[in-house]
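Figure S7 source data.
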Amino acid sequence: MASRKLLLLPGDGIGPESMAEVKKLIAAMNADLNAGFETEEALVGGSAYDAHGQSISEADVATAMAADAVLFGAVGGPKWDSVPYEVRPEAGLLRLRKDMELFANLRPAICYPALAASSSLKPEVVEGLDILILRELTGGVYFGEPKEIIDLGNGQKRGVDTQVYETYEIERIAAAAFELARTRGNKVCSMEKRNVMKSGVLWNEVVTATHKNGYQDVELTHMLADAGGMQLVRWPKQFDVIVTDNLFGDMLSDVAAMLTGSLGMLPSASLGAPDAATGKRKALYEPVHGSAPDIAGQGIANPIAMIASFAMCLRYSFNMVAEADRLEAAISAVLDDGLRTRDIMSNGMTEVGTTQMGDAIVAKFRAA
Ligand code: NAI
Ligand code: MG
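Tokens for the predicted NAI complex:
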């Protein structure tokens, strides 16, 4: 039986409360399915700073580098607002992203049928939606040089940001897109603005070449990113995987996320390059939300974003596609039963706390 090494980093605020529900699922999968998960747990963020003055320890960074996957809760809170910049809670997460070279950010937009009515779009447009935005995370205009504000000396200044992409950066994100598509609907739509940007011309060329070179079983289409934004709101179900650069991905993933509702529901993943020997990618899975200090410790946080992040971990790090489908179906079934945490509560539904929501999902998963 495979051993599957997970590092759990619950963090601060509602991070530990949400992670507790994932631990129940891990235990259930080890017991029922002989899944072989081996977990280690460590401090990150403010809780790590309180314990040893760093937002993550060197030993724990090493454990993360050696793990098959990292599950991350959330970090931060007003308690640590005045700690020095280098050791602030977010520094732990940034350090992991950098050391693990997590260049591919996965943001799914899933609309559970029971919540379709609360979307800002018509229910039939979003019901059953399941798409994945793949955003390049370590290149592009957020990092390109020069990046500066120049004083022109005549009362004017010039702000400069530079969009830069090199072939290898586009190749690796395109390859990740095609591989992810194979575990889903087998379609990729690449978005750039080749009509006005040289980096967009190169993006289009390299994605097309990567597709020819080993991924022709996956359907590839191209769209200009502005038209893509329009299509995302008009008929999002036409897409499966959308791959795009850092800037367009930042915006398009937030748009796509809000098609489907609450922050408490949204998972994410960040992947690194495949290991040359094993082909396995370094990976970190985390909810999109933060540490929610306003509700921490009250037992009312929605654990679904964290649980859905674990479902992504099953799908993308362990190729446990059937189990990932089953877990997502369990989340959907519990919502169909009318269970709601406070953030997604509506008339006629049953309000439950964090542990009740987690327990109900575990029970559905085990029974399926
Ligand atoms: P937040 O996401 O923590 O909270 C925003 C609002 O959504 C709050 O009203 C909160 O109660 C609610 N909310 C969030 N997740 C929820 C859940 N699972 N269930 C029910 N309600 C939920 O963002 P905010 O308030 O801007 O930041 C709080 C702290 O979290 C800050 O210190 C921020 O720096 C940090 N943060 C950390 C992130 C991370 O660890 N990756 C990401 C975003 C923020
Ligand atoms: Mg954003």
